[in-house]
Amino acid sequence: MSVANDDEPSYIDYETFLDPGFSPAAFANTLVLATNNPNDAPLDLSTPLSRVLFDIQEIDSHIDVLTTRSAIPLLTHTKEQTEASGRIVGELDTQIKALNDSYKQLEKEVIQKHAEAEEVRLVASRLWETLKLGRAVGRALQLGRQLEVQHAELTGSASTTVTTSSASYGIERVAVIRTLRDNIYLPTERSVRESAERIIREFSMGSASGTLTFAQSEETRARTVSGLTTLYLLSPTTLAKNEKWSPTLMLQSLESYLRTALQSSTASLSRALATLPSLERTLADVTARCQNVVALEAVLEATKIPSHPLVQGQQATPKTGGNMLQPLLAYLETGSLASYFWRTMASNLAPRVQEIMNKGGVSARTLRTNRQSVGEAIKECVVKGCVLPSAVAGAASGDRGRNDEMKDGEKSGRWEREVAVMVGSVVNNIGR
């Protein structure tokens, strides 16, 4: 198809130039070969160059003619487009102005009111936090006053006055709460803890001279359970990460009781072995101490673990529904308190016996002479020491409740390992 008009014929081959596969290099090579002999040297390039320049001038002239003819339609079209664009811009300006006015109205009616509402919400939130704080402080003061009155009734001490002052955000930072903690809670907690520890420390269901009556033993049991529960609940609940909670105050108090009984028994029995005439009386005292340990074990076994309000979930070491004996046995790594008592005392007593024998003299000779009778006396002491006091046996559960019905052979058989350990710690170190 020719681009030139019919009344303006052109020799330019527009089809060649419009071909998508047109190559300038190939076209130039064709022109050179058409105007020269390939064997000529040098080639004449002026003729093909003139041809190209003439074609360019022809195309330029043709463009000029077309532009001149179409100038008026082009200008008319451009004018129409410009006028249309102007009308569009005018319409857009009106719409943009209306949009800006709407936004200002919206800002006035919504955004400003939202900011005011946000301020109101913040004020209401802070008022609610203040109200909750006030209620918590009031509740704490009420409980503090009740605690103060109850403690004063129990101890007969004068009450402490709590003074109020300005409060700040956070109950732990409220001055009156700090005053309540320092003047009432901490002193009361310390007093209650000391009383509970004293109850455990003074626990006794009898002595070598006699046992308590049933009423006295029940009173002692009730006081002991109260002390144990108090120490259980007062045990610290602040734990390190992944640390299991345990009733440390209760366990430490019970361990101290056992340690005191063991130290007293070991010391007195060591002295008695050096002076045999006092051995019978000393063994009776040791038997009474062990019976108190067995009685304490019965009380612990019969006392269920209370629910601790500050210990939840997996933090609590004792399982729900267990008794207070379980955590103590786990803490001491033993199967029973009687076994722990005799085995620990045996390990402490062996060096004392060796010391007596190494010193020699009358004490060593007397002890060696009475070796067999001393062993029998210690065996009887162990067997009797593992029997519950009569006032406790009736109320205890399981096998302990039938101690009075057990024969001597059954009693000694049950504790034969403890008997062997205790007798061996003395007899085996006496020599022959």
Automatic annotation (TrEMBL):
An example GO CC term for this entry is: Golgi membrane
Q: Name one Pfam family in it.
A: COG5_N
What are its GO biological-process terms? intra-Golgi vesicle-mediated transport
Query: Residue ranges of region Disordered?
Result: 394-413
User: Which chain positions lie within coiled-coil regions?
Assistant: 89-116
Composition-biased stretches, type Basic and acidic residues, lie in 399-413
- Tell me the InterPro entries matching this sequence: Cog5, COG5_helical, COG5_N
Sorted alphabetically, which keywords does the UniProt record give? Coiled coil, Golgi apparatus, Membrane
Domain named Conserved oligomeric Golgi complex subunit 5 N-terminal is located at: 15-147
Classify the main location. Answer: Golgi
Report membrane topology.
Peripheral membrane protein
Q: Where in the cell is it found?
A: Golgi apparatus membrane
**Conserved oligomeric Golgi complex subunit 5 helical domain: which residues?**
173-381
This protein is called: Conserved oligomeric Golgi complex subunit 5
Q: Which organism is it from?
A: Neurospora tetrasperma (strain FGSC 2508 / ATCC MYA-4615 / P0657)
